[in-house]
Each structure stands twice: as C-alpha cells, then as structure tokens.
Specification:
- By secondary structure, the protein is an alpha/beta fold.
- The protein has a single domain, classed as Response regulator (Rossmann fold).
- The chain has five helices and five strands, in the order E-H-E-H-E-H-E-H-E-H.
- Helix 1 packs across helix 5 and helix 2 packs parallel to helix 3.
- The C terminus is likely disordered.
- One of its GO terms (biological process) is regulation of DNA-templated transcription.
- GO terms for molecular function: phosphorelay response regulator activity; transcription cis-regulatory region binding.
- It comes from Croceicoccus ponticola.
- Pfam families: Response_reg (PF00072).
C-alpha cells in the first residue's frame, strides 16, 4: 500500500481518483490546490503525487517546480493530470520533473496502472536492483 496525494480543484474527479486508488489498496488524500499539497507534504511524505496543472492559488507547474527544487521532496514521483494537450505543456512538465503526464479525460484504471508502474520502478531503483551487475 502506498500513500498518494491528489491535488485537483475538480472535487468530482478527485473523488473518482481517490475511490479507484483506494479500491486497489492505496491510502489517498485529496486537496484542492498546490498550496494545500505543499502543506500536506510537510506533515507526511507521499509515495506519489497526482497533480492537476490548472488550479487556483498555486498552479500544478508551480507546485511541481517547488517540489522538485526541494531536496527533501525532489524524488517523489509526480504525475501531471491536465486537460492541456499541447506539446509545449507536456514538455514543460516533463522538463520540470514530472514522471508522467496524463490528459483529461482519462480512464481511472489507466491512471491506477500508471501509479503502480511508477511505484514499482521507484521500489526497484531503491532496492538497487540491476545496479552494478553485469549480465552475460
């Protein structure tokens, strides 16, 4: 089970995401904007973050940059969730450190699989699997 923070100002979408991820065994906390998300990470380190790009108070990209510039939080995998589909937005998010980029509308099942993949890769890297091994 992982602890996942969701930041999205669309209450209905945040609840759908929360229900789907809870159904597969994760603990999920949803907040409405980037500022609330930054407050939450001070209290408890999430295993992953789902971050809407367009939110009031502090945008997703501003929040992403703040997290990635902080050494304490820079390794948290972050998936951007947004209606913005153009290449410039995707590249800006990925360059700023997003682990993945999902455009709305999306399938909650697809999102759950993406989270599972991110968490598995993070676990694999943390275990040092494949590091320094030579295969013949």
């Amino acid at each position: 089970m992982a602890y996942i923070l969701v930041a999205d100002d669309d209450d209905v979408l945040a609840e759908i995401v929360r229900q789907r991820l809870t159904a597969v065994g994760h603990e999920v906390t949803a907040v409405e904007d980037g500022e609330q998300l930054l407050e939450q990470v001070r209290y408890r380190m999430p295993d992953a973050i789902l971050l809407d790009a367009m939110m009031p108070v502090r945008s997703g990209i501003e929040t992403l940059i703040a997290l990635k510039s902080d050494p304490v939080h820079s390794e948290i995998p972050i998936i951007m969730m947004t209606a913005r589909r153009n290449q410039a937005d995707v590249l800006a998010a990925l360059k700023a450190g997003a682990s993945d980029y999902v455009t709305k509308p999306f399938s909650p099942e697809d999102l759950a699989l993406r989270i599972e993949g991110l968490l598995a890769r993070r676990h694999y890297a943390a275990e040092g699997c494949g590091m320094g091994k030579v295969f013949h």
